[in-house]
Amino acid sequence: MALFWNSGIQAEYFERFPRGLNPVLVNDVVFSFHTTIALFVVLLQCVIYERGEQRVSTITRGILGIFGIVVTVCAILAAIDIIHWLSFLYVCGYIKLTTTVIMTMPQMFMNYKRKSTVGWSIYGVFIDLTGGVFSMLQMILNAYNY
After folding, report:
1. Long-range contacts, 97-102 (Cβ 8 Å, 24+)
2. pLDDT digit string, tens, across residues 43-53
3. Residue 117 dihedral angles phi and psi, to the nearest 5°
């Protein structure tokens, strides 16, 4: 959203990529907004509904703590003009990518260990795959049109 609405960050992007095209379109902003709302609904459900004995693991807390420190340090460095805000956004993107990779590992491990996918819905994979294919198609079409 910052690359879509913030003219300062857009200027940093075009300074770094002078022949580039702003990769963020309206549909990207709508998707980000929708995802944020969905995330808050899930977090609200985590607070409201009974969890029984489920707790956030120590490893997860550690990873989130490291991510929090990295984001905080990079935000401070961007605020005092040591790094560009665009670089800060790249760091946030790398953290999102790492989170996406890490969150699939427990399910993959359980599937491997049990040699079964019982209790695991294939629809989530179809949704992720469809979104990824359309995202790549959008980038290819943007590159072709540019």
Report:
1. 98/67, 99/67, 102/63
2. 899 889 888 88
3. -115, 25
Res. 55 pLDDT band, cuts 50 70 90: confident
Average pLDDT, whole number, for the chain? 90
The per-type count for the chain, helices as H runs and strands as E runs, is 6, 0
The model scores a pTM over 0.90: no
pLDDT at 57 exceeding the cut of 80: yes
Q: Which of 99, 38, 37 is nearest to 68 (CA)?
A: 99
* Cα–Cα distance measured from residue 10 to residue 94, given in angstroms and rounded to the nearest whole number: 19
3-state secondary structure (DSSP) of residue 70 = helix
Helix (H, G, I), strand (E, B) or coil at 117: coil
Beta-carbon contacts of residue 76 (< 8 Å; ≥ 6 apart): none
Most confidently predicted of 33-37, 78-82, 123-127: 78-82
The structure tokens 């959008």 sit at: 138
Cα distance between residue 125 and residue 119, in whole Å: 14
Burial grade of 24 (CB within 10 A; 0-12, 13-18, 19 or more):
middle
